[in-house]
Write a sequence for this structure.
């Protein structure tokens, strides 16, 4: 079990294992957030937050939400609204300690155009 926290530690996200890689996506939202996504099954990830600590951003076709800390602003996770056993989620790997995530390879995803890895 690995734990990511926001800067003020009001939110923690627990995942079962180190990711094999993390994704740097250039789509309109990810490039602005500057996040690195580690992907897991939605059911594998547990987000725990202090009362009233989370804020969410939803836009467009409203299929997913981005969860961030209301206090310190760190982006924690994206989640789909429709969740079943196959649903994936993205956890912002920037919120892990560098000792955990520092050696994991970064893959560049062309989310802005082709949805292929570069
Ligand atoms: Zn915070």
């Amino acid at each position: 079990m690995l734990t990511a926290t926001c800067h003020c530690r009001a939110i923690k996200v627990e995942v079962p294992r180190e990711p094999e890689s993390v994704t740097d996506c250039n789509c309109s939202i990810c490039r602005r957030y500057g996040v690195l996504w580690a992907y897991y099954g939605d059911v594998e990830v547990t987000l725990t937050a202090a009362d009233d600590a989370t804020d969410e951003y939803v836009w467009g076709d409203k299929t997913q939400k981005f969860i961030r800390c209301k206090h310190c602003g760190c982006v924690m996770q994206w989640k789909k609204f429709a969740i079943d056993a196959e649903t994936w989620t993205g956890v912002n790997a920037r919120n892990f300690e560098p000792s955990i995530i520092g050696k994991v390879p970064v893959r560049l995803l062309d989310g802005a155009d082709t949805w292929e890895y570069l």
Q: What stands out?
A: The domain at 2-109 is CATH 2.170.150.70 (Metal Binding Protein, Guanine Nucleotide Exchange Factor; Chain A). The longest helix spans residues 30-33. The longest strand covers residues 64-69. Residues 6-8, 10-11, 69, 71-72, 74 surround zinc ion (CB under 6 Å).
